[in-house]
């Protein structure tokens, strides 16, 4: 790739000294970014470093308070999102903004429908859509399909197709891989390479370094709303250096040590026998002992999340039994599962786990209200006190249990969910993607926390798309493929490539 | 939203959907520093606004009607009239905070009032005790509420449709029972009870005060109230936290039904009649009072104090219109305008405090 001293040559986009302030806070305090045609420019930074604010400035959702933007060598001011789009800047946000009940073609041309005299030209839209899909390497996605019936990966392709239906020169991808599994990520990369070959520039935001290594050309690192490094070579810059730039301190991606001897296992706490959910998975056996962490690895859609949601009773099993401490739990009853001491930290933290507008302490105590009530009346002072202890011991920042959970970062929100089940003294804790959207620094804290929980005698089940995470954290790993457990082994006997083989092929190659 | 910067600290919590967390964190910090401004978006601050509105309406009444408006008798008249709808509104507050809506409240009031004044009920009341009438009205209200709740929770019927059906059915049944005639109350003990003044406060007003007080305690100090906020704020999270949201929803509608039963007794006593025309458009008045009281129609947030203020504002406004000999049609137009204005304001607040441009 190119070197650092030719910054201005062929710069498609040049942002300098961008400042964006909100009352009482400087979200961006002078950010520089230059992007060249045909490159994949990676934006790195912890949660809150200003990445999202920066791309919102670029897509004209926000107006910067200071700084300049040059586009193809000319100063521009991006006043409205439509103006940005007209220049050729398209953004694909983390949360996809598609209309699930409309077809692929309708979604792609939403807002700029092909029409003649007010009548939509469906045939033209369909054939154009087909052409775009072919360009993206996904001719199998038919223009007439409803978007809601597509997988997350498919939906993302539709989002990209929509961007390409405009004359896009710069495509911004905000954590595109968060909803994808490994196979789909490779597919995404293929699409990205195709686009850069055509001269489209990509701004790629991701927490996953290995992805940046694979797809990126250059890296810009943001920290606390400032550019701390720019033009770094994505292939060769040492990980240590990147982490140091992002965090200001040097940390490694660390997992807590697992007890080295196969522990004198506690009694079996969670026993799942022959569990089935029609059409999704069947014949799942799972035993988790006190103090043990069991990981479930597999592709998105293999049934991992469904398995633990069924164990929890959030989905009603069509066969099999779930037993906690010898007590059978009635099918499809979350209430019964919680009563038996099972807790779930769901995959979609914001939509499934938290009451975003309510105070931290209320989110923590919501599953243990009976403990704080006397004949129905709540002792709020006690709630706050207990929550405060937990928040302190888990190091949730910023401190203070009365603020709305919405104001916390992803990692701290996850700690609040964990605190909820800590307070309840869970016997079994089910964690679905515990580190999604959590930045590198906070990750190891969460890993340590999970290990501490296990050490205190809780039986833990972890689901993750990141094989590395499952292998690093769990004592035992179950590999799930197409709705069945295909492998069950101690984590130390597996490595990433073995798991991937199992996931893809169903056997060790 | 280029103007976000100048509005209030609430404006600076920009993206719930993205990860501009430092902004949010810092905004929260800023909110603490500028406590005065932050107050404006707390429920206490909003209620302050409502008090101001109430004062304005009262001033309007005083300016237009002078001492005819500002005297104790008139004040008690306003309160007496507002109390009936007030009791319904308290129940409605819970249902709306819990993420639901109930269009059938007026019809339930009519049915309960007719039921407790049928010849059979009154004869039974005379034979046994006048509270038989009270029991029958409460039972009818509770029963209708339960049916609503069960249909919505376990039948999977959306609240709008389920309660719309109840609206039609309950009022129709009330007409059948009463044969479209107004039924006079002949049980004098019943009427006497509701005519008692406690320290100058009419019984109807007292009932409203007691129901509001209980409502406040239940919403703010009990597990039931906390769960109501959770169920309305994020039903999926509440379910996964182990709350039985179906049962809770049934209880919310049953509670509102019970409030309708109480309101039916109040209007029956006030008019000394039971009629299938009682409670017409109560659903509109109750929802309006709840919404201008600051409760989010989407659920998860709301206050009893706000609802009480909403009820009072409408009560005083009605009185001002009557004092000035304006028609009820003009009142209806004004009510419509106020509701829309309140919702528009509320949405502005919601946008500023939590959502993206």
Automatic annotation (TrEMBL), chain B:
Keywords: Cell membrane, Membrane, Transmembrane, Transmembrane helix. It is a multi-pass membrane protein. InterPro entries: ABC_transp_permease. It is found in: Cell membrane. Residues 1-26 are annotated as: Disordered. Pfam families: BPD_transp_2. One of its GO terms (cellular component) is plasma membrane. The chain crosses the membrane at residues 48-66, 133-154, 198-219, 250-268, 280-297. Residues 1-20 have a biased composition (Polar residues). One of its GO terms (molecular function) is transmembrane transporter activity. This is ABC transporter permease.
């Amino acid at each position: 790739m190119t070197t650092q001293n030719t910054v201005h040559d062929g710069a498609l986009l040049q942002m300098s000294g961008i400042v964006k302030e909100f009352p009482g806070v400087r979200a961006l305090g002078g950010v520089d970014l230059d992007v060249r045609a045909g490159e994949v420019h990676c934006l790195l930074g912890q949660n809150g470093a200003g990445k999202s604010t920066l791309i919102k400035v670029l897509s004209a959702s926000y107006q910067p308070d200071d700084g300049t933007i040059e586009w193809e060598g000319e100063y521009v001011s991006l006043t409205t999102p439509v103006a940005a789009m007209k220049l050729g800047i398209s953004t694909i946000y983390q949360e996809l903004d598609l209309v699930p009940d409309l077809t692929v073609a309708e979604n792609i041309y939403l807002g700029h429908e092909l029409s003649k005299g007010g009548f939509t030209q469906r045939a033209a839209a369909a054939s154009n859509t087909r052409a775009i899909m072919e360009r993206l390497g996904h001719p199998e996605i038919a223009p007439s399909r409803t978007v809601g019936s597509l997988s997350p990966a498919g939906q993302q392709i539709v989002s990209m197709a929509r961007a390409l239906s405009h004359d896009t020169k710069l495509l911004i991808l905000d954590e595109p891989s968060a909803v994808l599994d490994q196979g789909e990520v490779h597919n995404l990369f293929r699409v990205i390479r195709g686009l850069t070959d055509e001269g489209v520039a990509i701004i790629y935001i991701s927490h996953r370094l290995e992805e940046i290594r694979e797809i990126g050309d250059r890296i810009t690192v943001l920290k606390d709303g400032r550019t701390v490094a720019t033009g770094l070579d994505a292939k060769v810059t040492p990980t240590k250096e990147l982490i140091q730039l992002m965090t200001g301190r040097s940390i490694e991606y660390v997992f807590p040590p697992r007890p080295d001897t196969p522990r004198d296992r506690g009694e079996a706490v969670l026993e799942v026998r022959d569990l089935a959910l029609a059409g999704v998975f069947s014949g799942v056996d799972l035993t988790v002992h006190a103090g043990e962490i069991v990981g479930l690895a597999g592709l998105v859609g293999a049934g991992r999340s469904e398995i633990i949601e069924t164990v929890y009773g959030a989905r009603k099993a069509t066969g099999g039994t779930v037993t906690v401490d010898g007590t059978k739990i009635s099918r499809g009853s979350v209430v019964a599962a919680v009563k038996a001491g099972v807790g779930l930290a769901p995959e979609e933290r914001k939509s499934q786990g938290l009451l975003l507008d309510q105070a931290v302490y209320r989110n923590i105590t919501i599953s243990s209200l009976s403990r704080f009530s006397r004949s129905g009346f709540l002792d709020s002072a006690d709630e706050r006190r207990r929550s405060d202890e937990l928040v302190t011991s888990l190091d949730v920042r910023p401190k203070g249990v009365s603020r709305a959970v919405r104001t916390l970062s992803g990692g701290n929100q996850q700690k609040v969910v964990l605190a909820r089940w800590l307070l309840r003294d869970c016997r079994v804790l089910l964690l679905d993607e515990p580190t999604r959207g959590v930045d590198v620094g906070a990750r190891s804290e969460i890993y340590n926390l999970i290990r501490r929980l296990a050490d205190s005698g809780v039986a833990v089940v972890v689901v993750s798309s990141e094989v590395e995470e499952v292998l690093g954290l769990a004592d035992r790993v179950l590999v799930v493929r197409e709705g069945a457990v295909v492998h069950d082994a101690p984590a130390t006997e597996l490595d990433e490539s073995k798991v991937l083989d199992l996931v893809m092929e169903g056997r060790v190659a | 939203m280029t103007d976000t910067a100048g509005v209030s600290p609430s404006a600076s919590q920009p993206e719930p959907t993205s990860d501009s967390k430092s902004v949010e964190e810092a905004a929260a910090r800023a909110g603490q520093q500028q406590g005065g401004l932050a107050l404006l978006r707390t429920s206490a601050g909003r209620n302050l606004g409502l008090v101001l509105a109430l004062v304005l309406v009262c001033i309007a009444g005083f300016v237009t009607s002078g001492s005819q408006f500002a005297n104790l008798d008139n004040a008690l008249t306003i309160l007496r009239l507002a109390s009936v709808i007030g009791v319904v509104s308290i129940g409605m507050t819970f249902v709306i905070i819990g993420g639901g809506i109930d269009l059938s409240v007026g019809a339930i009031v009519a049915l309960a009032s007719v039921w407790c004044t049928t010849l059979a009920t009154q004869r039974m009341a005379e034979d046994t005790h006048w509270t038989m009438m009270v029991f029958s009205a409460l039972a009818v209200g509770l029963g209708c509420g339960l049916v609503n709740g069960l249909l919505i929770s376990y039948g999977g019927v959306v609240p709008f449709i389920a309660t719309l059906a109840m609206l039609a059915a309950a009022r129709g049944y009330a007409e059948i029972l009463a044969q479209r005639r107004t039924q006079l109350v002949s049980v004098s003990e019943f009427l006497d009870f509701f005519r008692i003044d406690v320290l100058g406060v009419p019984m109807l007003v007292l009932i409203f005060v007691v129901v509001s007080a209980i409502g406040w305690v239940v919403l703010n100090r009990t597990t039931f109230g906390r769960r109501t906020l959770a169920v309305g704020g994020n039903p999926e999270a509440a379910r996964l936290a182990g709350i039985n949201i179906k049962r809770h929803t049934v209880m919310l509608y049953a509670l509102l039904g019970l409030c309708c039963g109480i309101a039916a007794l109040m209007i029956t006593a006030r008019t000394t009649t039971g009629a299938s025309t009682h409670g017409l458009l109560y659903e509109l008045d109750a929802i309006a009072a709840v919404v201008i009281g600051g409760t989010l129609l989407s659920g998860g947030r709301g206050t009893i104090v706000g609802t009480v203020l909403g009820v009072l504002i409408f009560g005083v406004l009605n009185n001002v219109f009557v004092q000035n000999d304006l028609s009820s049609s003009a009142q209806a137009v004004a009510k419509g305008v106020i509701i829309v204005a309140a919702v528009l304001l509320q949405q502005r607040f919601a946008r500023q405090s939590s959502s993206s441009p």
